[in-house]
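Technical annex, item 7. During the second reporting period the consortium partners agreed on a shared format for inverse folding records so that results from different sites could be compared directly. Each record opens with the tokenized structure and is followed by the designed sequence. A conforming record, contributed by the partner at site C, is shown below for reference.
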């Protein structure tokens, strides 16, 4: 059975564990952090620095309480990304992907962070995995748009390690200069 064809063998137990994890998360975060998390999902720029710090602290304690729940690590990684702490965010997102390779949001958000860091090959790989794992049209559309952005970046050479050699740059520069040079006008005498 391939990864994309895996199913939950005991859905009742899985549902109970998800509900328990959700309750524990809500209790751990508290109402203030839960509202901040919801606001961050809508628009990450609306949280001020203090709110982001409180949210990161709450999510960090939730990760300590429930280290095997990848979705909490994804939320922490997203909050760290908004705070411009990319290395810590990548660590948590990679751990979430390692814990559950079939987690759509972990694959998508790791791909997004890698894309923003201009590591396009790995970003494309994780985004493709997210597209395969998409459970509905909205998820599929998010992954498709992200993949299109990554392809555009690769086409335009906007990726880390995607810069051309100096020789290639000089050739291109020479071609551009010769096509832009002014050609002398020919005077016709009568």
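Designed sequence (site C submission):
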């Amino acid at each position: 059975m391939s990864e994309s064809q895996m199913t939950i063998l005991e859905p009742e137990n899985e549902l109970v564990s998800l509900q328990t994890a959700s309750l524990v998360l809500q209790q751990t975060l508290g109402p203030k952090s839960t509202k901040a998390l919801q606001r961050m999902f809508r628009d990450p720029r609306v949280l001020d620095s203090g709110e982001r710090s409180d949210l990161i602290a709450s999510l960090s304690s939730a990760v300590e309480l429930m280290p095997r729940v990848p979705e909490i690590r994804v939320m922490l990684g997203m909050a760290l990304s908004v705070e411009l702490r990319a290395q810590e965010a990548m660590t948590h997102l990679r751990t979430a992907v390692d814990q559950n390779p079939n987690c759509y949001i972990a694959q998508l958000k790791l791909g997004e962070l890698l894309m923003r860091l201009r590591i396009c090959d790995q970003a494309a790989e994780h985004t493709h995995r997210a597209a395969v794992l998409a459970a509905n049209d909205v998820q599929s559309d998010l992954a498709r748009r992200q993949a299109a952005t990554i392809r555009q970046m690769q086409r335009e050479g906007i990726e880390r390690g995607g810069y051309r050699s100096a020789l290639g740059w000089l050739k291109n520069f020479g071609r551009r200069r010769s096509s832009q040079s002014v050609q002398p006008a020919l005077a016709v005498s009568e």
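Residues 1-11 have pLDDT under 50 and may be disordered. Residues 11-42 form the longest helix (32 residues). All partners now use this format for quarterly exchanges.
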